[in-house]
Fold this protein.
Amino acid sequence: MFLRGISARKVGKISHLLWGSGVSPAEVRGMNKGIKKELIRWLNRPIAEKFTYLIIDGAHFKVRRKRISRDAALCEVGITEEGHRESQKAWEPLLTQLVRRELDPKAVLMVSSDGYPGIVAATRTVLPYSEHQRCLFHKMGNLKAKWSWPALSLTPGPS
């Protein structure tokens, strides 16, 4: 509830209604500090596997702080040769953090993204041994915006 913007005081009242016992605002804040420590520890854990492919992108969301604005959540997925993935939520700092966590920059063969110049530049800087490939989903979206699709007939012609 707290993560959805509900105040610590309201969390206590809601928990009392739901479970019959309330939680004090100080307890809610204490739990959040504990969760934050665990999250930071998880975000900074060493990367045990060698990822051979990285898929990175930014998803834009409306965020309410003092006013509503659109912010990007930077996301990446690392895929091992066996197909296992690790997802995580920044471009050059994000990649640099992964290398600090023992991601082997020489093992990453390819990075796929939406082609945003910042991603491409960060990849060249931090992962210089990898190739960059434009994500097919983003490439098709750009083509669709530029082409008149009714003019492209997908129905077979006369045989």
In short: The first strand starts at residue 51 and ends at 64. The mean pLDDT is 78.
